[in-house]
């Protein structure tokens, strides 16, 4: 059928033939946006994976470095113990400082300190403890009172005597002191007084010091304990505790007890290990016994 002619000026409403390229710009922009979002998401995944890989590598390196430090500290401890029990030219003095260079930029310093020249706070009688307190400007009567409370604190029989302390704000624990800071629990002890006596006491030594002690304060405490203001002999009383699980292991008889401080420096890393070792005598089968070991700043563990 022939198409009907359209009058001049009339609007054509018949079938339209649109250019198929007319809608492509919008579709192309949407596709480009999807591509960009996909690439961004993939880049995020890749960057996260790389960051995780770097973190794991850093953690592995840190773990390896710490393991190497642990091995160096263990080797330093064995080196110190070997030289302390050795004889002749290889022997180290029990009071000394030694520098050991480990791998690369790692530096290890070992300091040894004999504790038998100190006042054994877990074994000494009240007169010697009172003499030490007097060196810190405590009056003799007050020194004896505080020393008596220190001895009572570690005395199991005093801890069982509940009638004597009924209604009191203070009562003895009946166990040895685990750290010098525990002395603050004793009636009459102050932080300033504790700070004064800490460099001169030991938690692990059982033997009493002598006038040959290199510690001048301890020698003065021995003199004061024998003065007219105090009872005559600073001997270990019946309250001296035996080694138990409730307190630190305490050296026996004539075994010298030594503190070993090991300091490791590697770049910005600082490590500190403390050992308390009881060295053997001629009659002992084992060359030494470790009474305590701790890996931090254990300044009050003497």
From TrEMBL:
BP GO terms, sorted: protein secretion
* Subcellular localization(s) per the UniProt record: Cell inner membrane
Boundaries of each T2SS protein K first SAM-like domain copy? 122-204
Classify the main location.
Answer: membrane
* Gene3D superfamilies from the UniProt entry: EpsJ-like (1.10.40.60)
Its family remark reads: Belongs to the GSP K family.
**Protein name, UniProt field:** General secretion pathway protein K
Q: What organism is the protein native to?
A: Tanticharoenia sakaeratensis NBRC 103193
- Source taxonomy: Bacteria, Pseudomonadati, Pseudomonadota, Alphaproteobacteria, Acetobacterales
